[in-house]
């Protein structure tokens, strides 16, 4: 998961102001039938890496894009995902690399254009997983073992959500009828209300299954996906929820987690974040920027490392599937006071 860098590592907000170069220096700006290109653009993002040398972390990406576009590309770090949206709205940044909720807000508040989606382990979305230590209650069949390829380890699944002996896919929605077996007073471990996989999508799934999530269950607050799994592992809760597959985060301290914690259901898919751009950018610049960023991870071994270390991704894709982002906005609306 992406983390914010410490405030001491941030570039000054004033650095977001665009700097000028001689107009017309870029060959691209003279493209026939296009609007004139700006002399520079700024990307705002929340990196997954931590460290003091921010310029070194951002430089390979911005240098690559500058070379590909023929204009200056600057990179700045936002304190959190919401700040990327505000930077775009204030025209302090024209490109944002951010999470799904912020993409939705940028699109709906500032008419931003979604151009790319994040790819992690070959997927642009993921399920929240329902975990239990009581498979006799929640599983209609015997749990089977399937390989969670990201960690190269076998995990236990039931209700037909994975095929025995195959690589697990983590694709939902599946097995959600089993949520109706949650009895009054059942202890259910839930993460913070801002967590899509640990709270929001599970709450919606349980409510769709007829569960009174306010009064019909005993909510057990936990922090983080690892603790959601451990709550079930340690019998502090009978059911918990986390991203697919959060059991991999506790293998060192709980090597038998796949025996004690069974995945019995997948929610509908939760979208990864992506890249959005301001409507102020010319269409031909957006097109070239989209292509350049889409091809970045495959441009060199260094680029692949930068992608993973800087923003925790394996790739970007131009298959944006905006309907997933729009659906996420509907989910978010349920939890806004």
UniProtKB/TrEMBL annotation:
Spans traversing the lipid bilayer: none
Keywords: Signal
The organism's place on the tree of life at top rank: Bacteria
InterPro entries in UniProt: PhnD (IPR005770)
SUPFAM superfamilies: Periplasmic binding protein-like II
Signal peptide positions (record): 1-22
Presence of the UniProt keyword S-adenosyl-L-methionine in the record: no
Record carries keyword Nucleotide-binding: no
Similarity-based family: Belongs to the phosphate/phosphite/phosphonate binding protein family.
Identification of the protein by name: Phosphate/phosphite/phosphonate ABC transporter substrate-binding protein
Organism: Gulosibacter sediminis
Gene of this entry: phnD
